[in-house]
Design a protein that fits this description.
- This protein is α/β, with parallel strands linked by helices and 147 residues long.
- The chain has one domain: 3-Layer(aba) Sandwich (Rossmann fold).
- The chain has 5 helices and 7 strands; from the N terminus they run βαβββαβαβααβ.
- The longest helix is centred in the middle third of the chain and has 21 residues.
- The protein is globular, with a radius of gyration of 16 Å.
- The two termini are 25 Å apart.
């Protein structure tokens, strides 16, 4: 059974489903979780033809990521599952490989990630974190599709 489970957290419904499943797996095996959230630098936005950065400073994005992780950590504690959290700053790198690296660093034996089920242009433009993880890891990955 899996003892060290990394869970990718992004605030989405599919990530919540992934957390719920990881908690169930950890309860069944007396395992522990690493809750991982990747902080991406805010992308510039086009407003009236001009490019501008979002008004929130990076510290506000970091605090939001920490709150997201703390909420997930509270759910783990409530379920009686040992967990720790890690906020990973992307530094311009893609999320999938960063999650895969965190799994290796933490010696995870399973990665749990919710998928958003993007297709076509959305997938081309936004990419697929799940696909990026699968392509760059040797750790088993459990994917949870949208409900």
């Amino acid at each position: 059974m899996y003892q060290r489970i990394l869970v990718a957290i992004d605030g989405s419904e599919t990530a919540r489903r992934g957390l719920d499943e990881a908690i169930r797996l950890a309860q069944a095996s007396s395992g522990r979780l690493l809750l991982a959230h990747v902080l991406e630098e805010p992308l510039p936005l086009a407003v009236n033809g001009d490019w501008t950065l979002p008004s929130l400073p990076l510290t506000a994005w970091r605090e939001a990521g920490e709150r997201l992780l703390e909420g997930a950590l509270a759910r783990c504690r409530q379920a009686g599952v040992a967990a720790e959290m890690r906020l990973i700053e992307a530094g311009g790198r893609r999320i999938g490989p960063l999650i895969a690296e965190a799994a290796v660093d933490w010696q995870a034996d399973l990665i749990v990630v919710g998928t958003h089920g993007r297709r076509g242009l959305d997938r081309l433009l936004l990419g697929s974190v799940a696909e990026g993880i699968i392509r760059t890891t040797r750790t088993p990955v459990l994917l949870l599709p949208p409900a």
